[in-house]
C-alpha cells in the first residue's frame, strides 16, 4: 500500500521524481485520482503558499512545488477527463490577464471535461479580447475565468465588460473562481456564477445547463 503522505511531501519539497513515482504507484493500486488531488496535492500547495507568506519559501521553491504538482497532474488529468460521457455544453476557460497561475484552472478544465463538457482551454494570462474571440468562434455556452491574485481580479470585470460590449452578454454565461474570488465579488462584477472549487464549478455549470 503506497504511503500517500510521500506525495504531499514530494510536492511540498519540489521533488518531481518522487511525486510522479508515488502517483504512478497509487494509481496502479486504483486509488481515486480526485482523492490524490484533494487530500494530498492541494494541501501541499497550500502549505507551500503558507511558507511563502511567512518567508520560509521564495519564488524558486514555489516554482519547484508547482513543477512537482504538474508532474503528478499530467498522470491524473486524463483520468479525470475520461470520466465524462455525453457532451453537456461548451466551455471556454482561462486564467485572466496578468495572472500566470494555471494549476487550479487546469484542474477545473479537467473536471469539466470529466463532467461531460467540451472544454477550450486558452491557458494563462489571457486578454479579454481573446476570451471574446474564442467565445464567438466556438459558440461557447460558458466562459470560466480564473484568478489567483488579488491584483488580477479586476481583469474579470474587464473581461465581462468586453463580452457585453461585443454583444455576447446574453449569449454566454460567465462563471468565475480562484482562491481570492468570492460570491460577493462575482455579484459585484456581474458574473453569472461563482464556484470555490473544481467540483463545485462542474455542479454549477450542470445546474445552469439544466435550468
Ligand atoms: Co503564486 N501566489 N505568485 N505562484 N502561488 C499565490 C496565489 C499566493 C496566495 C501565495 C501566498 O502569498 N500565500 C499569492 C497571492 C496573494 C494574493 O494576491 N492574494 C501568490 C503570489 C503573491 C505570487 C507572485 C506575485 C509571487 C512573486 O512573484 N512575488 C507571482 C505572480 C505571478 C503572476 O501570476 N503574474 C506568483 C507566482 C507563482 C508561481 C509561478 C511560482 C507558481 C504558479 C505556477 C503555476 O500555476 N503554473 C505559484 C504558486 C504555485 C502559488 C501557490 C503556492 C499555489 C497555487 C496553486 O496552484 N494551488 C499559491 C498559494 C496557495 O494557493 N495556497 C500562490 C493549487 C490549486 C489547485 O488550489 O486555488 O484551491 P486552489 O484551486 C481551486 C480554486 O482556486 C478553484 O478551483 C481550483 C481547483 O479546485 N478555481 C476555480 C480556480 N479557478 C477557478 C475558475 C472557476 C471555478 C473555480 O471558474 C468557474
Secondary structure: elements and pairs:
Layout: H1 5-12, H2 16-28, H3 33-53, H4 59-81, E1 90-95, H5 103-114, E2 118-121, H6 128-138, E3 142-146, H7 154-165, E4 173-177, H8 183-189, E5 193-194, H9 198-210
Parallel strand pairs: 1-2, 1-3, 3-4, 4-5
Helix pairs in contact: 1-2, 1-3, 2-4, 3-4, 4-5, 5-9, 6-7
Residues 42, 45-46, 48-49, 52-53, 59, 62-63, 65-66, 98-105, 107-108, 144, 146, 148-150, 175-180, 195, 197-198, 201 line the site of CO-5-methoxybenzimidazolylcobamide.
How would you describe this structure to a colleague?
By secondary structure, this protein is an alpha/beta fold. The protein has two domains: 5-83, Methionine synthase domain (Methyltransferase, Methionine Synthase (B12-binding Domains), Chain A, domain 1, Orthogonal Bundle); 90-210, Rossmann fold. 57% of the residues lie in helices and 10% in strands. The protein has nine helices and five strands. A five-stranded parallel beta sheet has the order 2-1-3-4-5, with helices on both faces. Strand 4, helix 8 and strand 5 (193-194) form a beta-alpha-beta unit. Helix 3 (33-53) packs antiparallel against helix 4. It is globular, with a radius of gyration of 17 Å. The chain starts with a helix and ends with a helix. The chain binds CO-5-methoxybenzimidazolylcobamide (B1M). Residues 42, 45-46, 48-49, 52-53, 59, 62-63, 65-66, 98-105, 107-108, 144, 146, 148-150, 175-180, 195, 197-198, 201 line the site of CO-5-methoxybenzimidazolylcobamide.
Amino acid at each position: 500500500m503506497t504511503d500517500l503522505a510521500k506525495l504531499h511531501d514530494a510536492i511540498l519539497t519540489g521533488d518531481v521524481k518522487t511525486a510522479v513515482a508515488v502517483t504512478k504507484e497509487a494509481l496502479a493500486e486504483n486509488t481515486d485520482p480526485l482523492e490524490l488531488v484533494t487530500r494530498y496535492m492541494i494541501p501541499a500547495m497550500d502549505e507551500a503558499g503558507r511558507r511563502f507568506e511567512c518567508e520560509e519559501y521564495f519564488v524558486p521553491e514555489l516554482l519547484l512545488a508547482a513543477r512537482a504538482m504538474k508532474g503528478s497532474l499530467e498522470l491524473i488529468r486524463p483520468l479525470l477527463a475520461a470520466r465524462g460521457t455525453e457532451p453537456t455544453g461548451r466551455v471556454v476557460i482561462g486564467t485572466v490577464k496578468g495572472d500566470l497561475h494555471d494549476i487550479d484552472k487546469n484542474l477545473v478544465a479537467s473536471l469539466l471535461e470529466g463532467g461531460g463538457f467540451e472544454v477550450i482551454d486558452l491557458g494563462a494570462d489571457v486578454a479579454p479580447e481573446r476570451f471574446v474571440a474564442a467565445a464567438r468562434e466556438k459558440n461557447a455556452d460558458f466562459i470560466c475565468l480564473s484568478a489567483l491574485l488579488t491584483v488580477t481580479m479586476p481583469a474579470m470585470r474587464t473581461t465581462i465588460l468586453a463580452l457585453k460590449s461585443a454583444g455576447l452578454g446574453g449569449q454566454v454565461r460567465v462563471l468565475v473562481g480562484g482562491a481570492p474570488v468570492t460570491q460577493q465579488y462575482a455579484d459585484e462584477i456581474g458574473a453569472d456564477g461563482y464556484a470555490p472549487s473544481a467540483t463545485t464549478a462542474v455542479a454549477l455549470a450542470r445546474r445552469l445547463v439544466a435550468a
